[in-house]
Amino acid sequence: MSFGLKNASATFQRVINRALSLYRNFSRAYIDDIAVYSENWEEHMIHLETILCKLGELNFAVNLKKCLFARPHVKYLGLVIGSGRHQPDPDKTNTIENLPQPKTKKELRSVLGLCNYYREYIPSYSELVSPLTELTNKKVPDNIPWTKEHDLTFDHLKRALVEAPSLYTPRPD
Questions:
Q1: Mean pLDDT of all residues in the chain?
Q2: Is the dihedral of CA 103, 109, 114, 118 positive or negative?
Q3: What is the pLDDT of residues 42-71, one digit of tens each?
Q4: Angle in degrees, 0-180, between the axes of helices 105-116 and 125-134, rounded to the nearest 10
Q5: Quick one: residue 147, left, alpha or beta (phi over 0 = left, psi -120 to 50 = alpha)?
Q6: Residue range 33-48, pLDDT digits in tens
Q7: I need a labelling partner for 90 at 20 to 30 A (CA). Which of 17, 99, 141, 162 fits?
Q8: Contact, 165 vs 121, CB < 8 A?
Q9: Which of 57, 44, 43, 61 lies closest to 1, judged by CA?
Q10: 33 DSSP β-pair partners
Q11: At which of 70, 104, 124 does a domain end?
């Protein structure tokens, strides 16, 4: 598929979702990142074989150098997932921790968008970021008037991300 086309990734996502639709109880796909998860080793081997056979049947190429098989934890979409738990990827949160203070509304929106991805790991996230969100208001100049309160909020937000807890995935049984 030509990825120069603006709808190519959405089209590919639809195709991969259809291809793996029968296997939703043990796999997830985001574009070309596929996660296969299982309760035990034997089940995992069956699940892996099922997914790989389906991909082969549909003539999808699998780059084995990019694959991780049978790992208790994997990094997937900015998270570390495994053993019934998930948490932000420390590599990502450490990058966020080292972000400089945003100077413009555009930079601040970008930072808030990035942090918002991890909001479920931060208690009272909306209340915490409220002073920063107010700076994105149309009435605020593009070069934002940063105060001590904003410094404290920004530092608290970054610290909360770095110290984010692991969350357990609910089990239906």
A1: 91
A2: positive
A3: 999 999 999 999 999 999 999 989 998 888
A4: 170
A5: beta
A6: 999 988 889 999 999 9
A7: 17
A8: yes
A9: 61
A10: 30
A11: 70
**Angle at which helices 125-134 and 148-162 cross, to 10°:** 140
Q: Range of 161's domain?
A: 90-168
Q: What is the DSSP string of 22-86?
A: GGTTTEEEETTEEEE--SSHHHHHHHHHHHHHHHHHTT----GGG---S-SSEEETTEEEETTEE
Indicate which CATH number applies to the domain containing 125: 3.30.70.270
Phi (first) and psi of residue 23, to 5 degrees: -115, 25
> Mind listing the pLDDT tens digit for each residue in 15-35?
999 999 999 999 999 888 999
Q: What is the token pair recorded at 35?
A: 């996660």
Tell whether 75 is covered by a domain: no
Domain boundary (70, 102, 119) is at 70
For residue 60, is it within any domain?
Answer: yes
